[in-house]
Write a structure and sequence with these properties.
The strands form two sheets. Strands 3-4-5 form a three-stranded antiparallel beta sheet, with helices on one face. A two-stranded antiparallel sheet has the order 1-2. 4% of the residues are buried. The protein is of the alpha+beta class. The chain starts with 7 loop residues before the first helix and ends with a strand. β4 and β5 form a beta hairpin. The protein has two helices and five strands, in the order αββαβββ. The chain folds into two domains: 86 residues; 56 residues, no CATH class.
Amino acid sequence: MAETKKTAPETNDVVKETAAKVETAAKEVKKTAEKKVAETKKAVEKVAADTKKAADKAVAETKKAAAETKKTVEKKVAETKKAVEKKVSEKKVAVKENVYVQFMGAEVSTADLVKAAVEDYKANNKDAVKTVDLYVKPEERTAYYVVNGVEGKVSF
């Protein structure tokens, strides 16, 4: 086998050549790595943008659904309230009251006495009637009244 002996300057040239190749390879690796980093960064940014877009859409849909639910609940509450009020009003039974005062062969309806007291009050006052208190004294055949704080009397 024949051995080739190289001189120091030749060895030096081989080392320089190898170092140059290593440096070129390192630059290529760095360039490839930077390219991959840029591609990855771009992909991450796209995923982030897509995620934000999806999240914004989900939030908008949730808000819309919440508004629709609120509207539906308010409608149901109003319907229920109306139904309850109807049931309550149906349950109220109007009672017709007839009260008569009888004394020594005479008879008078309290409704007639209230009506007479209100008419007497209105003959002298223009205010709307808000309260009526009636005090019947059959022995005097007189009803004393207080309408809106104003006193008066009517005979029967």
